[in-house]
Write a structure and sequence with these properties.
two-stranded antiparallel ribbon, about 600 residues, disordered N terminus, single chain, about 10% strand, alpha/beta, elongated
Length: about 600
């Protein structure tokens, strides 16, 4: 048995099935209390467990591995009983499998553990010391036990599992060699003062489980009993550094850069998952609920506490280095790739065995692969043509296209921030990911075909702009708008149309240029702000965006630049978005992305 370690007042260890059979040389006595539901595993579940164990036995490399069941939570009593707080379904199934194979087990001189159920005021309840199929209908618990017993018999009696297979199965079930193939459980033993009902409630109401990070913490920290002063000092240092890492991962900016995961507590568990993904673990093993714990348990069996903890610290420091990258290149590109669901395990591989500049080059190439599905070309003109062609093919339409345009505009923002080497601005992934309302694609100049679904809201947004203008004509128009708003539901549709046309004419949008539904007329905006002025004229949108930005609400850099007309070569009117403005904006996107992929930076 692995050395038990303490967690939340109890101890945890990996136990082989053989080690479940006895305590101090005598058959172990397990007791299932009445607060638990009865045995309810189906024939399918039993057969599936046997199939899984058999697949493990037959898999290549099984000699160096073990098959692990989910936790069994227990508490010892002074009379020698072991109360099963959680996991009784698994323990009962193991008991039934052993009963069915008892003749073969006897050849291996193995004894069985005892399994008793609290009577639930039913003294005539059949015992599970043996299975009598004739009593299957005596009570629901015994019926399901008989069903499970028959399922084992059917599995053993099928054409693909002869007696030699049954012997092989029982050998693996009862092998106690910690270095060889066997079947184990995660054994969690509550402390003397732990309340069993509280523990049962936590583990079963809402199916709250022991998490991987709780189990891994137990592996590293142990209970300290019998430890040398040196070992105790090492564990105390690990406990201190563990809390520092968790505190670091709780920083919103760092967490938003690192992952799309929404967990609030025990974020160190995500670090363990990333490290486990780097291990050479068969994909099918990832379906095990505790596969991450198994990875670290296995590594600690083959290594030392200090070495494994050093690996964890180095992994955390690697992510910190990327986050704090002075030139902000790794921070921005990795942050972008994470938003596009690129696995951090892949990004880690890109960083291996290369210099920092080469890592940055690999990151840019990975973004280009995401963009265009091929390797980035080194020739600038060819690259420019590729990007321009790609952007021209994008059009606001399907959800897939919208998602792609959103990502391109996010990349445009990130590339713009990297472009100026003297800048110290960092894209706010926290605000970008945490907005409850999400992010929309906003038409910079509304389409003429857009319907006005909320006339009072549209008029209100225009009115706020008009009353701020000094020209008397604007004031007069504002008064007409105010009167129309006051009419509410009694307002005339024809009057609204006429007033809308007057507003658009005053704002230079009465003669609509060719409608643009592509990236040259789109920008990123949080949907909360967007809903506030849906289909409003450019001038009204501009006023709203600048007011929101002034108030300290996060507005992406390039969105602000659009409404400041920073990309326009010639600014005719600050309150009109023209075709030349749109053309200049698209050119800026192409130029910025070309510079990004070529690694160009400016000093001004």
């Amino acid at each position: 048995m692995s050395t038990p370690t303490q967690i939340q007042g109890g101890t945890i260890a990996l136990r082989s099935v053989r080690e479940l059979l006895s305590e101090n040389g005598k058959p172990a006595r397990y007791w299932i209390p009445s607060y638990q539901r009865g045995y309810r595993w189906t024939r399918v579940q039993v057969a599936q467990l046997l199939d899984d164990i058999w697949d493990f036995i037959e898999a290549p490399g099984a000699q160096d591995r073990f098959y692990c069941l989910q936790p069994i939570v227990v508490k010892r009593h002074s009379d020698g009983r072991i109360e099963v707080v959680d996991g009784q379904q698994r323990l009962t199934t193991i008991h039934i499998i052993l009963l069915c194979l008892r003749d073969i087990a006897k050849l291996l001189t193995k004894t069985f553990f005892e399994l008793k159920f609290e009577t639930r005021n039913d003294p005539a309840r059949p015992s599970l010391d043996s299975i009598d199929l004739s009593k299957a209908l005596d009570n629901p618990d015994y019926f399901h036990a008989c069903e499970a017993y028959e399922a084992v018999q059917e599995w053993c009696g099928s054409g693909s599992h002869d007696e030699s297979h049954q012997l092989k199965l029982i050998q693996h079930l009862l092998n106690a060699d910690t270095a060889g193939p066997n079947v184990r459980v995660i054994w969690f033993e509550l402390g003397l003062n732990d309340n069993v009902v509280d523990a049962f409630t936590r583990l079963n109401v809402g199916k709250i489980r022991l998490t991987d990070d709780e189990l891994i913490r137990a592996l590293f920290l142990g209970n300290g009993h019998g430890a040398t002063p040196e070992e105790a000092a090492i564990k105390a240092q690990i406990a201190y550094e563990w809390d520092l890492i968790e505190k670091g991962l709780q920083a919103p900016d760092f967490w938003a850069f690192l992952t799309e995961d929404k967990r609030e507590q025990n974020r160190i568990g995500h670090l363990f998952e990333l490290m486990a993904q780097a291990e050479d673990i068969p994909v099918e093993d990832h379906h095990d609920e505790y596969w991450v714990f198994h990875v670290f348990s296995d590594r600690l069996r083959r290594s030392t506490l200090e070495k494994e903890w050093l690996r964890i610290k180095q992994e955390f420091m690697r992510f910190q280095e990327w986050f704090e990258d002075e030139r902000r290149i790794a921070y921005h590109i990795i942050g972008f790739l994470v938003t596009q669901s690129v696995e951090m395990s892949e990004i880690r591989r890109l960083s291996e065995q290369c210099t920092k500049s080469e890592f940055h080059r690999r990151l840019r190439d990975r973004v280009y692969q995401w963009l265009n599905g091929k390797e980035c070309v080194p020739a600038e003109e060819e690259l420019r043509a590729d990007i321009a062609t790609y952007l021209d093919a994008l059009e606001y339409g399907t959800d897939k296209q919208k998602k792609r345009i959103r990502a391109i505009l996010l990349l445009f923002n990130i590339a713009s921030l990297i472009e100026n080497r003297r800048s110290n601005l960092k894209f706010n992934f926290t605000a970008f990911k945490d907005r409850d309302c999400g992010w929309d694609l906003e038409h910079i100049r509304s389409l003429a075909s857009d319907r006005i679904n909320n006339r009072p809201e549209w008029l209100e947004s225009c009115h706020r702009f008009l009353i701020e203008q000094p020209d008397p004509h604007w004031k007069s128009l504002a008064e007409e708008v105010s009167a129309q708003i006051a009419l509410g539901d009694d307002a005339s549709t024809d009057k609204f149309k006429s007033l809308r046309l007057s507003i658009l004419k005053q704002l230079g949008e009465d003669s609509q240029p060719e409608e643009r539904n592509d990236i040259s007329n789109l920008t990123l905006l949080d949907s909360g702000t967007n809903r506030g002025y849906k289909n409003a004229p450019f001038a009204v949108k501009r006023r709203t965006i600048l007011a929101v930005d002034k108030a300290g609400v996060f507005v992406p850099l390039c969105t602000r630049n659009v409404f400041l007309k920073a990309y326009s070569a010639h600014v005719g009117s600050a309150i009109v978005w023209s075709d030349p403005d749109a053309d200049d904006y698209e050119k800026a996107i192409v130029n910025t992305l070309v510079g990004f992929f070529l690694g160009k930076e400016v000093e001004t």
